[in-house]
Amino acid sequence: MLKDIPITEARNxxxxxxxxxxxxxxxxxxTRRGKPVLAIMPWDFYxxxxxxxxxxxxxxxxxxxxxxxKDVESGKTFSMDEIEKEIAR
Length: 89
What we know:
Elements: E1 5-6, H1 7-13, H2 17-23, E2 28-32, E3 35-40, H3 43-57, H4 59-73, H5 80-88
Parallel strand pairs: 1-2
Antiparallel strand pairs: 2-3
């Protein structure tokens, strides 16, 4: 994450922030009176956060993920050969 910048500085640097964030991925905290009030980040980063929150908020998907992790941990898996044979049927 880039350093925090005051809102007055962000106003002056807004056009250069995309390049700065491309070099140093993450977000910039924009501050007012020393306290963060905004986050500026690349669009791809924002989309990935939103997608992650959507996945975490889907109870059925999360239950399936937890079950899949348990299955792997207990050895309930299939080899690629087994999967390919099943698909070929």
